[in-house]
Design a protein that fits this description.
Radius of gyration: 34 Å
Distance between the termini: 129 Å
Structural class: alpha+beta
Shape: rod-shaped
Number of helices: 2
Largest sheet: 5 strands, antiparallel
Strand content: 25-35%
Strand order of the largest sheet: 5-10-7-6-11
Oligomer: single chain
Mean pLDDT: 83
Order of helices and strands: HEEEEEEEEEEHE
Length: 231
């Protein structure tokens, strides 16, 4: 009986020692993990959506590795000059999917527009749309047939070139029936214009008729021809 007690005591001591070393090892691992830091880009202050990120808006911060989002940006070079897709809160980690770059179509058409430019769509048919041969990236002239007035105030109908060398941003697409010889065509063309050009295009489309004239590649000369017929 005495041997059984001694055996139990020895086993209790062994188990206690094992538990102690296990707990010590676990604590060391936790401390080691908490000391394992990584760098991540965070917002210095609240940043609204659709904001161009500048150097004073973000900073590098050291955080425990286990708390860093796997999509977080770790270099300032990857953030500066980008545009926020969503609002960022102070000290919030900056995630790469939440950033957009001007000049790309990752967000919307507005990201591809240069400063001072506007996108405007015009309705076209087979004739005014060059039989469907206009494509994204082409350049066109915009001709309009409208009522003009001569020096005496007399009205006359004439064709005038209201904009030249205008980039084509997009062509709207519609599906045709299975009996058509082609599978797709467009009824609208979206152009990149200045505000002044956009106003002229809108006025002519509302008060007259428009026709797009496809320009050859590398021809960017502004001809500025007289109206036809002249007054």
């Amino acid at each position: 009986m005495k041997k059984i007690y001694l055996f139990a005591i020895c086993m209790a001591i062994i188990v206690g020692i094992a538990v102690y070393f296990f707990a010590s090892s676990l604590e060391q691992n936790i401390n080691s993990e908490s000391n394992d830091l990584g760098q991540v880009v965070v917002a210095v202050s609240d940043i609204p959506a659709n904001t161009l990120i500048t150097e004073d808006m973000v900073e590098l911060a050291e955080l425990p590795s286990q708390s860093i989002n796997y999509r977080a940006v770790t270099s300032l070079d990857q953030v500066l000059g980008k545009i926020t897709k969503y609002p960022l809160l102070t000290q919030e980690q900056v995630l790469s999917p939440d950033l957009l770059e001007k000049g790309t179509e990752n967000g919307s058409l507005s990201y591809t527009l240069d400063d001072g430019k506007r996108a405007i769509s015009v309705s076209v048919d087979d004739v005014s749309g060059v039989s469907g041969y206009i494509a994204q990236g082409d350049f066109v002239d915009v001709a309009a047939t409208v009522i003009l007035y001569d020096e005496t105030g007399k009205s006359y109908t004439a064709s005038t070139l209201i904009a030249e060398n205008i980039p084509v941003l997009k062509t709207g697409v519609k599906q045709l029936s299975s009996t058509d010889s082609i599978s797709e065509s467009y009824t609208t063309v979206t152009l990149c214009a200045t505000p002044e050009q956009a106003l002229k295009i809108n006025y002519a489309a509302t008060n007259g008729s428009l026709c797009l004239i496809l320009r050859p590649v590398l021809d960017n000369k502004v001809v500025n021809p007289p109206n036809y017929p002249s007054s």
